Amino acid sequence: MKIFNIAGILVLTMLLATACSDSDDSSTSPENNPGTLRVLITDAPATFDAVNVTISEVSVHYGVEDDSSNGSGSDSSDDNGNGIDNSNSDNGQGGTAKAALDSGWITLSNEAQEFDLLTLTNGATALLGEKELESGLYTQMRLEVSDAELIIDDDSYPVKIPSGTIKLIRGFEINDGVTTELVVDFDASRSIHEKGGKGDYQLQPTIRLVTRNDCGSISGTVTNAEHAPLAHAIAGADTINSAYIDTVDGTFTLAFLPTGTYTVAVSDTLGNSYENAAVTVTKGDDTVLGDITLK
Question: Taking Cα atoms as reference points, which of 123, 119, 163 lies closest to residue 142?
Fold first, then answer.
């Protein structure tokens, strides 16, 4: 009888161990291991004192292409071929990621956030939103811009927003267990236009949407940076990114550049300049130019 009891205890122990093992395996299955999307915002330099923008919602579209952007609003393309739709059409909204597996909008953040874009240059970023998402293809991103203003010589000017919704039409993938970082790169100097009389400003966004992990950067130090030099990364005929150079230590970073070859051009307010037409950027690396003297 004692032998039977011991055998029974051993069998029960083995069954319990197997059950625990099965439970642990299921917790690491792809269905329970979603990816994470982090969305960051950055900006290129502009001649204003401040550009304050309030973004009240950030969302992404899952699945098949959303037809709501067709035939409504104004479509354009940014420097990387990302489509930009300024319409406020809102068809095909979804709720949670699980409910949107066929297609739909998923909200990453719905809290109003105000940013001075001009503090987010030289590779600086701020977090727009972060969320765990089901793996799969996402086709576009939507930003709700509720307010914008310029500060020029301590005076505030409202910026009209023709549509409160900006759609960035660019596909990206979310993979199980992987964090994907997308950078919304505003260009304030190209996005804000003066219409009519002085002080009548309007937002017509020029934005790049890039995957941070697929980008590299270029950095350097200007040895004579006393006269407000500005650096540009140029691909072909288009300026992809710009950076003000620190007038104290002369450093600059041209960030979030896709892999490729760029012309780096630097000039200051006195007309002194530098140019290098063969600067190579590789994914995940910073190409260091070293010391640069403007002549």
Answer: 163
